[in-house]
Write a sequence for this structure.
């Protein structure tokens, strides 16, 4: 039986962030079993943490950013790749800025940290997920397909839009091959991209000390290339890190052509969807589970400030696949609740809305508002076992399209609650921008017997 692993001792490293240019100190800390990988901002009040999971991805422009509310951590992929490569399941990454130090643009320094800290097994089973059927993704110029396999293998081809420096590499990812074949590959960019990146607030900490620059047919670097195929190997390093956002190890053979952070993170969500699929199928053909017993003085929801996972949401709502429009509750605080919906290309409505131009229907965003508001009203009314029926919607506005890969943040404020009637103001956002909003009215009623 494989055991979960963490690091033995704390270890730290300091440097600058690639995109922010900020000075930053980073510490890896051991963590208990089933913690996963969490990033902690020690420079902020309360030392907030963000779990490294695909549903927390907020930006994928030249790197992977995870966020929780207004708290962000940029460029997490190289750190995650190191934990994934060595098979470390549980760790805390403390940072005193918004981005890990980039070091030399590879994972070499992070590997040294792990070697210094040591790796220890834990008394919990490690459960990799093995792909059960092929998963496919086409996103822009990226094509990715993953097939069932007993190990984790990546076969990758990379190239720029002009076909320059087309490279191919394939390897099974193990702790040995990770350190030998992928960990030392540095990040790179094309010379003509640099002005655009600077103008858009990126690579403020970039230099030839931490990146390779390609200009025409020349390679600008402070040392010789570390691998004949260093560029594609770095793309594979990024894939290893981004796919660790699934939240557990994955076995399968991934074939990727021109991968990107946006595609990698969307692919991680597709894997998560396949992991959930057996449970979803079972729910489709069975009645909703009975509401869990509610301890005295508590509602079916959580205490203020706590999150609700999908299992807890399904105890509060009768909705099931394909009509459950909230994946988790991020926050419940008085008359306010925040829900999260990760919008995947696997959503069934994308088959017809619209072929070749997938957009989440606005009415389903409205349904998401109603479902999250219903959870809050059930909580406020201490109404376990009841259903919030959607009665009316006013001042409905749809402002921007929601597409595959977006994370819909559903922010609800309960404006009136009298008896079994409630009114709420709902706003849906993607990356901080309002995409839809509405005032909704709903009523509590007893659930029909099964």
């Amino acid at each position: 039986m494989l055991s979960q692993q963490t690091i033995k001792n704390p270890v730290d490293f300091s440097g600058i962030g690639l995109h922010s240019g900020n000075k930053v100190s980073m510490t890896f800390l051991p963590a208990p079993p089933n913690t996963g990988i969490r990033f902690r901002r020690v420079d902020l009040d309360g030392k907030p943490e963000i779990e490294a999971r695909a549903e927390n991805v907020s930006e994928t422009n030249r790197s992977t950013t995870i966020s929780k509310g207004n708290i962000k951590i940029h460029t997490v992929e190289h750190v995650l790749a190191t934990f994934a490569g060595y098979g470390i399941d549980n760790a805390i990454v403390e940072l005193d800025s918004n981005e890990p130090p980039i070091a030399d643009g590879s994972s070499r320094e992070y590997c040294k940290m792990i070697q210094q800290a040591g790796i220890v097994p834990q008394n919990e089973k490690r459960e990799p997920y093995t792909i059960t059927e092929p998963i496919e993704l086409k996103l822009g110029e990226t094509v990715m397909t993953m097939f069932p396999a007993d190990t984790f293998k990546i076969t990758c081809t990379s190239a720029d839009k002009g076909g320059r420096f087309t490279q191919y590499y394939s390897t099974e990812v193990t702790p040995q091959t990770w350190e030998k074949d992928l960990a030392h590959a540095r990040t790179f960019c094309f010379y003509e991209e640099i002005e655009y990146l600077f103008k858009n607030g990126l690579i403020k900490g970039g230099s030839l000390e931490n990146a390779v620059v390609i200009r025409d047919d020349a390679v600008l670097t402070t040392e010789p290339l570390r691998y004949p195929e260093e560029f594609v190997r770095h793309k594979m390093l990024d894939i290893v890190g981004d796919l660790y956002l699934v939240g557990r190890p994955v076995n399968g053979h991934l074939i990727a052509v021109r991968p990107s952070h946006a595609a990698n993170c969307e692919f991680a969500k597709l894997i998560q969807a396949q992991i959930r699929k057996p449970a979803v199928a079972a729910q489709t053909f069975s009645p909703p589970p009975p509401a869990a017993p509610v301890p005295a003085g508590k509602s079916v929801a959580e205490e203020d400030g706590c999150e609700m996972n999908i299992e807890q949401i399904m105890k509060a709502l009768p909705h099931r696949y394909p009509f459950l429009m909230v994946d988790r509750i991020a926050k419940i605080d008085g008359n306010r609740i925040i829900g999260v919906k990760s919008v995947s290309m696997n959503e069934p409505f994308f088959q017809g809305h619209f072929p070749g131009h997938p957009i989440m229907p606005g009415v389903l965003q409205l349904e998401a508002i109603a479902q999250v508001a219903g959870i809050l009203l059930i909580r406020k009314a201490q109404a376990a076992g009841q259903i919030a029926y959607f009665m009316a919607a006013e001042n409905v506005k749809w402002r921007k399209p929601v597409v595959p890969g977006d994370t819909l943040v559903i922010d609800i404020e309960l404006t009136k609650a009298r008896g079994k009637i409630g009114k709420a103001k709902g706003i849906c956002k993607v990356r901080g921008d309002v995409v839809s909003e509405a005032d909704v009215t709903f009523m509590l009623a007893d659930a029909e017997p099964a």
Q: What stands out?
A: The chain is about 20% helix and 35% strand. Residues 75 and 300 are 37 Å apart (CA to CA). Residues 287-446 form a domain with the Thiol Ester Dehydrase; Chain A fold (CATH 3.10.129.10).
